[in-house]
Write a structure and sequence with these properties.
With 83 residues, the protein is an all-alpha fold. It has one domain. Helix content is 87%, strand content 0%. It contains 4 helices and no strands. It has helices at 2-5, 9-39, 44-63, 66-82. Helix 2 packs parallel to helix 4 (66-82). The radius of gyration is 15 Å and the shape is elongated. It starts with a helix and ends with a helix.
Length: 83
């Protein structure tokens, strides 16, 4: 049944876009938590850094292949949870 639902190219592409958007969103959250808890940034500078990081992350998602977005997710996940 799973194969019949995701048998079309459009469904596979939609699923890939959703997974990539999930990875980029959670990498933004991990960077925010890292800067807030580990580095100790608060206030406007923290939000400014996250704003720029989020904008460039959207550009990564738009112009690169999906493996790069998975790499960003994995690197920020490991960075946040290893410290």
């Amino acid at each position: 049944m799973f194969l019949t639902i995701f048998a079309t190219v459009k469904a596979k592409a939609t699923l890939m876009v959703l997974v990539a958007a999930f990875c980029i969103s959670f990498s933004n959250i991990f960077v925010f938590r890292y800067l807030n808890k580990v580095v100790g940034l608060n206030g406007y500078i923290l939000y400014l850094i996250i704003l720029f990081y989020s904008l460039f992350s959207i550009l990564y998602l738009s112009f690169t292949i999906e493996s790069f977005t998975f790499s960003i997710y994995a690197l920020t996940f490991i960075l946040y949870y290893s410290v």
